[in-house]
């Protein structure tokens, strides 16, 4: 069960409306690594968790925080979409030189042409559960496998891409209010990246999980001759110089081997004849 | 440019057809963490890479390998879908007890009812670019941000979830041929998990990138008082016991702090009045 | 901001696992009218609301309740997916008559063939943010227009279809635990249908909104000769007998008129010639 | 069976091309509440209807009308997309001040940059089955449950949101031809809102259906103690002031009750241990 | 404008309900090559057509026919979904041998487990605008480019794949009523394949369009040295034996040339350095 | 198995960055008829092919070529997205007349407002697996039926629409480098259209397949009285003038017949009563 409190974790009011910035910020709301994703991802991981209580509680702590992040962004966007230019300017530009160049367009027309049309027509000036191209958020973004080690790597990635995207929009924006709010969200992403890396360490320390994921599958059942081979399939051997091509593998269970001229181990089989009831094309 | 060679990296022929297993294996072809994802993800990362040649070459090596993995799976599935039961059995079951229980259904009917219908109707006995529920693969699964550190964490995750899913299907299958082919693919996932973790180490060793991602953004521009706080928003303090709540954070740049009774820092602002041209609901 | 409390609004444990029922119940989690929709819909409506506080508070009350409904369903589904049959039965059926009919299939095989494969492979025994066919929840399900009258009709509909679907699954299920939990959710849907109809009344009583929606648009700007005409375009005049074909319209602003042989008011214009740079097909 | 007649229900030719307006108007064609939705929704409701003939005929009347609405919009859009600016202007702006500001861009360039690219590349100057962000129309927008009461509330909503969106585009447009055609479509939406509300009344009058939906489910099977409770889960009690918190509920079957400090009725159960074959994370 | 007549183009009532067949037949309603696609495709082609009237009229003739095909299928499916098994059978199988094998499942349970759950829960026994895996129809299936030659090839393909799929379901079905109705639809697909091939001939005869599409683009602007080369990029030269590798090309404008060892014409350029504001990974 | 060679099939460097052109070119990468589609389509057709080796080899030749086409486009787009304008211009326009008209916007602002936001925020200056509106590529675009005749018509269509779209972008672009690269891709589309038409001829010459597709289905099982009838369902008889309405059909198996006043052959049946457990609306 949940309770809502009428405060925001952090918020600075935008200085002025900016529907173009609102369009871009949708990526942080409803993009693959936006706040809707991390909220839902941590909830499904937490609700489906069958491991120790400290992990489950931790996941629900942060999931609950992320609902509030959507709220912060939705509040910000209401200000950015306020007084959006909604009407084409009727009076023609008077200056003849200007008219030749601009054909009578004004800044308002240009913004109206470039903003997300649904911010006016569909939501009436509010945030949308969609990304910056208008594509809706969807449930395939959520990763919750029941294997905490796999999931925590996913969470590091989500916070890494999330912070990267918040930073890019911070660089693009010049509204001091928006930048200030983003500076807080970026700080929380710093925390959350660290949190999930710490959680991976904790899983190892607790002896619950390890590399390779899932570590509970006995490696003698995999084809171990291929478990640490690097296959050089793109012309040139620059890839030979990296850490991934030599030395002990990070899981400590094998030595990397660089296969410079790899060949397929198996012949291509001849496909079975098609079923006549399917009316496919056979050999003759 | 690419060249195709008519060998498979590894392959053991399935012993017998099994359309239900084919339905499940679609997850490994066209699911969010299937081979189509890793192939496309590593290609877009590689093609968009503006970093050192060893990274770019390495990404194109593995992307090229992954095309061959789709080929291995498609070949396997042609055998699993061979001779699928395509017609309802017309003759009724004769034994009266059986008839009461089964209503005349045979194993063939049951398989026909449960298989992916498109494996017959749409693809005529071949693999589909879709997951195990029939949902098509889509480009939002691909993560290629230009920031290699962020992308490599994504790649670890993709290989972790990919190996987990291959292992789960290995456990569910009992066809020795399919299990043997899966045992090879699981081994390659072992390699690829290790490879991407090694690549993260290499980025750090090369001084190119570090935590938090993106490390090129000056942390003094984020709200640093919040950068290492753990917010306890789910009842109970089990989450206090974890590595994420105390000690130095993994990035080495702060100390974790546990906020047991967190309060929002900002008041909820009063939203601006709606634009009359939008015909939304205002205060009076 | 939000807080999570470790209690469930209501819950009765399922008596036994049932992966097929779990597949069907996904509709209530992630279908177009599942709990994810109402939660997100009421939040976006509430966050984007610029009207009186009592409406905004009410929407956030119910949105917050709905998060807990997903939690109830996810908890239920963990039990339904417990001990799912994950392996094909290897030993053949011994009785020769049985073998002929069943081909060695057991109930476990049948369930394994029919369950949502992702409940094993992808989520490892947990709920998914998807509907009963495996299609992911998406943000286009959310309706939040800024016009409360339009939105409240949408909310009645969501709760009506939601209750209808819960009732249908109640009828199909025979697990007493699941039925008991559903009986609670059906009761809440009763409340919520009533709540939104009451809210429509309140908007009218407050003089904020009325029919036709949006009532703030002056009707003299629409083509009023057509505003209350019923066009009979499907053969036969059974439709003439209904309330929609005669008498005063529910908005009280016009009289219904039945047009038995309707004709288009305008001629079909001749389309403009195609632009040569588009290489489309023109008249000659 | 259907017949097509070469007239339009209503049409006024746009005065001049306007690809930006065409982009926005796609919402009325292929958005969640566009003409494709209402056409398909009323057809599936009508074809699936097993109720009295007057309802079925009425649904097919209006569904048939809606095909013609797509035709009206497609015709309008062919004019709006005529002579779209398709080439970047090569000659640089000569005036040095202009050049500094505009960098050589002309109004044509700006329109070309902002229009839906598929209106040129994909459709060659025609309407698309997509919304104003380019997202394709899809079948999950269609609501046809077999329960007419549930469906008619959905239809009110579709017409309400549809009219709201047409009105918003009417406000944004300044082409007299487009406004005139929209004024007709807005009038039809007035009719259709009234029609569906009248149809709800008729269902009640005929004793076929009532509130709560579905009214055929015996309410004694739901947990009736919760059927009329309002749960105050968002801080503050503004929501107590509304019609939804006191008095007799609109279905006439209960009294609203305001629960100011609601508590969950059930304890959170301990989740079952994970299946070892799934390689998920368990308690130790 | 459209008119609906209450007859079906052709229809034979199914002999008995069959929800599994109904699941499969959804492919013909809402799959990529189902009736919804051809209806919408021919309408958008017709409405967007700027060519001679005989083409436009022909496209609208067939589009109008296709609405009726959806109606035929929806009517068929109402019968197939009638009396679907909706409840799990409570009484256990008595015979101990049976119980061991079947665990108490009956044919009704098996059908209930395998049918599309939305046919009960969502549509209440009616057709859905989705394909046989439950994936919704969407507007990206529609091809309407403004170039009639390109579009007519698409139409041949749609009717070819459509007839193939109808034939496959005809083979799978054993209900005489359904087979009879399908035999009519297959006949219409025969007509429509022929019709579109005839229409391609007519475009050539009228001198409107030719190969390669679009024939209005002057071929001297393409890199003509590559216009008729076959590149052998898959090991082995079996492809050399086909018509595509030798002789005059079908457009009559070049001779096929088989390049046995093709080499890329261009060097791979060095990518530009990343923009520092994007925080991507650069060379050092 | 595949090998990558570090050369491009053809490439000319763009003269200057152009993020708007990059947005449009996404259609050629990830649109329904972009390079991702043809690559995946030819691979799935080739991998699933059970016909003669020359066809299978030919399909894998061209599929392998298409991977390289995505590479060419991704390389081009890295240059077009280089130095994109990422920051709003802070300094206001000084000239008072300009300020009135432009409100301080510069060409950079306009480009920033119109470009695909994900080209900055998500991909960091690289190509995306999406189309020109930002909609992701998906697997439903792939057509691979097992029937080569059906598939080859699809391939003609894909190359026809693909060439049409490349030509349209060629016309819109004015960067000589991009035009030169497109001129090569257009030439390859010329080849591929011819190749697939030649392959259709070859299938006929080999006696493998013919019209109507699938030709292996005995036509006496279809309702032959309807196999060559043209139904005139749109007012007017312009459609009577075409090749499709008279003479021998292209398959040589029937004569076209023009039905000027077509009537449905069957009566509309009365739908079955609804199942009470579904709580749908019945007759009384």
Main sheet: strands, sense, barrel of chain A? 2 strands, parallel
Number of helices of chain A: 8
- Fraction of residues in H or I helices of chain A: 40-55%
Percent of residues of chain A in beta strands?
Answer: under 5%
What is the rounded Rg of chain A? Answer: 26 Å
Could you say which structural class the secondary elements and strand pairing of chain A correspond to?
mainly alpha
The general outline of chain A is: globular
Which descriptors apply to this entry?
homohexamer, 284 residues, mainly alpha, two-stranded parallel ribbon, 8 helices
Short structural description:
The structure is a homohexamer of 284-residue chains. Chain A has helices spanning 19-30, 35-48, 53-80, 96-102, 107-114, 118-121, 148-172, 176-205, and strands at residues 2-4, 7-8, 229-231, 257-259, 266-267.
Textual characterization of the structure:
Six copies of one chain form a homohexamer. The first copy, chain A, is mainly α and 284 residues long. Chain A is 45% helix and 5% strand. The first copy, chain A, has eight helices and five strands. In chain A, helix 1 (19-30) packs antiparallel against helix 7 (148-172) and helix 7 packs antiparallel against helix 8 (176-205). The longest helix of chain A is centred in the last third of the chain and has 30 residues, at 176-205. The model of chain A has no long low-confidence stretch (mean pLDDT 92). Chains A and B meet through strand 2, helix 3, helix 7, helix 8 and strand 3 of A and strand 2, helix 3, helix 7, helix 8 and strand 3 of B. Strand 2 of chain E pairs antiparallel with strand 5 (266-267) of chain F.
